[in-house]
From TrEMBL:
Organism: Gordonia amarae NBRC 15530
GO function term, MF aspect, one: ATP binding
Superkingdom of the organism of origin: Bacteria
Entry-linked PROSITE patterns: ABC_TRANSPORTER_1, ABC_TRANSPORTER_2
Ranges where the ABC transporter domain occurs: 7-235
Keyword Transport among record annotations: yes
GO biological process, alphabetically ordered: response to antibiotic
Protein name, UniProt field: Putative ABC transporter ATP-binding protein
InterPro entries: AAA+_ATPase, ABC_transporter-like_ATP-bd, ABC_transporter-like_CS, ABC_transporter_ATP-binding, P-loop_NTPase
GO CC annotations on file: plasma membrane
């Protein structure tokens, strides 16, 4: 079925018991469709419901209501068929096995022993083959989990904080590998606290807060939801007074380090006015960034409790 979505979540809900016998709605009506081949970042503040949603997608948790389909089948069926695999934050590795033994054991379960060397090389584990898992750093253990997830050659890869604990070089190598996988058509859904990773890698961002989706769209569109661009310059008080007269709605955001940071409903008009101000210098225009959008769109979102 060519048009079957890679992921289809419909009105997912999941609640847990909270303090004082309250009920916390961890996931509160999430619906999401991801097409095959998409690379989607799943973002939100701590406690937003990301991990609970991913657990239901992977069949690790059963929703209270709603449906989950992975390529038209249940999560368990997709897992058993090798169509979905995951890199999770915690657990899953035996500390007394070596890295090579860990990869070989999982490879044997999928009939992929011939691919062990290739997978270990692609995930940067070749030099760690004889090291015990217990002696691997947190970032190295994440790379082991990534190797295990790619062994069945899944159509969908789910990543929950995949680069946690990795140093800069390891993170760069990880995303280089992921870009190659995505270029070959693999669907990727990943949650991360590193917003620059989402900005650089994702085609689409789904932003969740309070157990609900608050924004969903191409990365550039999500950035633009942050609102006004900020224009800054070194400018004296007299010129600032003139700017407030000629630029409708201009607002001084802050003054710091000799610079004045300004915003207006039309940032292009503001920038032109500064460029035409003889004594204004070092004019800079700060475009929208994902962090601004993240903070703007998740501000005030609360989880329902009863």
């Amino acid at each position: 079925m060519i048009n079957t979505p890679a992921i289809a979540l419909t009105e997912l809900r999941k609640s847990f018991r909270g303090p004082g016998n309250t009920t916390i709605n961890a996931v509160d009506g999430i619906s999401l469709t991801v097409a095959p081949g998409e690379v989607v970042a799943f973002l939100g503040p701590n406690g937003a419901g990301k991990t609970t949603t991913l657990d239901m997608l992977l069949g690790l948790t059963t929703p209270d209501s709603g449906t989950v389909h992975v390529y038209g089948t249940s999560p368990r069926e997709a897992t058993s068929n090798g169509r979905i695999a995951a890199v999770l934050q915690n657990g899953g590795l035996h500390p007394d096995f070596t890295v090579a033994e860990t990869v070989e054991i999982v490879a044997s379960l999928h009939g992929r022993l011939d691919d062990v060397g290739t997978v270990m090389y692609a995930t940067g584990l070749t030099d760690l083959a004889g090291r015990k898992v217990s002696r691997c750093s947190g970032g190295e253990q994440q790379r082991i989990k990534f190797a295990l997830a790619t062994l069945p050659d899944p159509d969908l890869l789910v990543l929950d904080e995949p680069t946690a604990g990795m140093d800069v070089d390891a993170r760069r190598a990880f995303w280089s590998t992921m870009r190659a996988d995505a270029a070959n058509g693999r669907t990727v859904l990943f949650a991360t606290h590193y917003l620059e990773e989402a900005d650089a890698f994702a085609d689409r961002i789904v932003l969740i807060a309070g157990g609900r989706i608050v924004a969903d769209g191409p990365t550039a569109d999500i950035r633009n939801m942050a609102g006004r661009r900020v224009v800054s310059a070194i400018v004296d008080d007299a010129d600032l007074t003139e700017l407030t007269r000629v630029v409708p709605g201009v607002e001084i955001i802050e003054r710091r380090g000799g610079r004045t940071y300004l915003a207006a409903p039309d940032s292009d008009v503001l920038a032109r006015a500064l460029f035409n101000t003889p004594r204004a210098r070092e004019v800079e225009i700060a475009g929208h960034n994902l962090e601004d959008a993240f903070l703007t769109l998740t501000a005030g979102a609360t989880r329902a409790e009863h």
